[in-house]
Amino acid sequence: TSLFSSVEQGPPIEVFAVNKAFLDDTHPAKVNLSVGAYRTEECKPWVLPVVRDAEKRLAADDSLNHEYLPVLGLESFTQAATSMLLGGSECVAVAEGRAFGIQTLSGTGALRVGAEFLHRQLGYQTFYYSNPTWENHGLLFKNSGFTDARTYRYWNAKTRSIDFDGMYEDFENAPDKSVLILHACAHNPTGCDPTKEQWSKLAQLLKSRPSLFIFFDSAYQGFASGDLERDAYAVRYFAQEGFEFMCSQSFAKNFGLYNERIGNLTLVLRNASQVTPVKSQLTLIVRAMYSTPPNHGARIVSLVLNDPTLYEQWKQCIQTMSSRIKQMRLGLRERLEKLNTPGSWNHITEQIGMFSYTGLNPDQVAHIVSQHHVYLLKSGRINMCGLTTGNLDHVANAIHDAVTK
Ligand code: PMP
């Protein structure tokens, strides 16, 4: 018998299972609204022109080689990524040398390294993620050693908007030494973020609970609103208010570099004197996990963020992506309202970022998938980027049919 015979089949990962079902479907009108990746108006993946330009420059540069990067990554990248998040030297934490970044395997890797550090070095056992959240937060923190997974209220199904009072109360009642995972912007999957006023209320509460640790997850900076500063509002505000925190950054969406696994973990500390020991412990964690990070994505992002011309070009690209998404939001809402589909659909244009939480129930979702070949998650989350002018009518009709059946 095999030494592996005790291994049981694990549960499928929903988003990849739905994506596969879409690929296997031969229906000509099929639409994929599952996996979170940008698509053009022609429903094609998009390599940002600025990324192509950067890649050509890198390919032509004979001075570059394939030596190992340092364990904590390419410094010109981590510095630029941290400044992009916190706002450069106008951020006091940056100016005082108590904020720094380390290169990670995309946003997931940043969360993973940060979580393991919090567990091993600071002894955190409890973490809170929003209900609902990106489906990987729970598994990721558990595999980093956390033993106590809890959720905080976030979505009010009745109003199809954020349940701020519920969230606030759950934080008030959180036991000491809990990590709170907060989406920096464009909450996945609901597309609903706290307002500035709500962020300020949370900050006041968290000031009175100094053992709660804030872990921002920033997967959509610039991609969400088209404006890098606006999407970094919450993180910069907490830095300005003097908090210590971590923030994972992903360059998958805003650079279209999904498979390059390029991310950054930014840490904001209270004392600059702690930077060196904290870095040394992060080095040991990364060393044992994957030793050193990959190079290609880091070089691209570093080149673009540090070159004024490429940087402007990149900002145009994120404008292109975010405005196409906004158009699709408008288009879907307009069509549902024209069809007189029961319910209100204003949340579709009020939500922000890649996803919309439609409010469709699992029954309606199953109907849409099986009868109309439109693929979405059971939760009713749709990737707005899968919509195009060409398929909006089909998707709106499918939703209408499911809601009125
Ligand atoms: N956090 C959230 C909320 C996300 O939506 C994503 C991407 N789907 C990530 C983190 C990380 O993605 P990646 O590892 O591809 O950067």
Q: What does it look like?
A:
By secondary structure, the protein is α/β, with parallel strands linked by helices. It contains 16 helices and 13 strands. Strand 5 (155-156) and strand 6 form a beta hairpin. Helix 2 (49-60) crosses helix 12 and helix 15 (362-372) crosses helix 16. The termini are far apart. The model has no long low-confidence stretch (mean pLDDT 97). 4'-deoxy-4'-aminopyridoxal-5'-phosphate (PMP) binds at residues 36, 106-108, 134, 183, 188, 217, 219, 250, 252, 263.
Any key phrases for this structure?
single chain, 405 residues, alpha/beta, seven-stranded mixed beta sheet, two-stranded parallel ribbon, 13 strands, binds 4'-deoxy-4'-aminopyridoxal-5'-phosphate
SSE layout:
Blueprint: H1 14-24, E1 31-32, H2 49-60, H3 75-86, H4 92-95, E2 99-105, H5 106-122, E3 126-131, H6 137-143, E4 148-153, E5 155-156, E6 161-162, H7 164-172, E7 178-183, H8 196-207, E8 213-218, H9 228-231, H10 233-240, E9 245-250, E10 262-268, H11 275-289, H12 296-306, H13 308-338, H14 346-350, E11 355-357, H15 362-372, E12 374-375, E13 381-383, H16 392-404
Parallel strand pairs: 1-12, 3-4, 3-7, 7-8, 8-9
Antiparallel strand pairs: 2-10, 5-6, 9-10, 11-13
Helix pairs in contact: 2-12, 2-13, 3-12, 5-6, 5-11, 7-8, 8-10, 12-13, 13-16, 15-16
The chain binds 4'-deoxy-4'-aminopyridoxal-5'-phosphate (PMP).
